[in-house]
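sry for the spam today, last one i promise. struct tokens for design, 243 residues
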């Protein structure tokens, strides 16, 4: 894709949907190919690829398979510095602002900087906030950080505002994989006032939840675990997009 086209598409996304693929959970090639075919039918706005514990080899293989078989924009959602691939269309260059572990605030970013720069892929500086979804998430475990409790509305807003003032181009509110509770729409409404494109994910299991997030102001809603748990959810998403 042409440079900046991913960010432009994100800015202009209205009721956008992204599907997150974790290479660790797609070790069976036939299963991955079946999922790619489903996504080609769904035509989400983006495919996100990444995970908290993914090895470089598994990551590269997954990206290669997707790019070979789909024209849907592929965006890296990195869990570590090794998750970089020049064949992707863009990378969310994340800083985990909700935590205070320097490795995830800036450490992995320094390690990956040269590889990202040389890859030539589009870079989207992203303020990443992990919110408490009512269960322990893989992000919290891997980053050794605590999520922000969702009762702390002011902290969520101020952390997002700090990201904007630091020059981040996007905000990602995540309740974590397998969350019992999704991001509350009140936080989406509040953070949306900052005027940056807003991505929301974690704990979303129904199209009604997707609709509420969209109505609250999310440019993009990310679906991950639900597709793995319920093979018919792709059809629900297709019906939602075509309503």
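last one done:
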């Amino acid at each position: 894709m042409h440079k900046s086209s991913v960010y432009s598409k994100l800015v202009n996304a209205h009721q956008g949907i992204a599907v997150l693929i974790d290479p660790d959970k797609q070790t069976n090639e036939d299963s991955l190919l079946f999922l790619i075919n489903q996504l080609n039918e769904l035509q989400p706005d983006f495919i996100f690829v990444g995970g908290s514990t993914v090895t470089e080899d598994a990551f590269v293989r997954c990206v290669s398979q997707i790019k070979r078989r789909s024209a849907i924009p592929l965006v890296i959602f990195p869990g570590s510095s090794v998750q970089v691939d020049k064949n992707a269309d863009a990378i969310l260059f994340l800083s985990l602002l909700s935590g205070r572990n320097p490795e995830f605030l800036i450490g992995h970013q320094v390690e990956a900087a040269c590889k990202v720069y040389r890859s030539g892929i589009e870079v989207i500086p992203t303020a990443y906030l992990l919110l408490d979804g009512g269960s322990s998430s893989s992000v919290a475990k891997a980053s050794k950080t605590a999520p922000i409790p969702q009762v702390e509305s002011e902290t969520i807003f101020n952390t997002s505002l700090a990201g904007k003032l630091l020059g981040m181009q996007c905000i990602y509110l995540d309740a974590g994989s397998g969350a019992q509770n999704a991001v509350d729409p009140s936080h989406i409404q509040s953070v949306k006032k900052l005027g940056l494109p807003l991505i929301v994910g974690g704990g979303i299991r129904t199209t009604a939840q997707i609709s509420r997030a969209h109505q609250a102001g999310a440019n993009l809603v990310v679906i991950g675990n639900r597709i793995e748990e319920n093979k018919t959810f792709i059809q629900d998403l297709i019906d939602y997009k075509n309503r």
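Residues 26 and 32 are 6 Å apart (CA to CA). ok im logging off now
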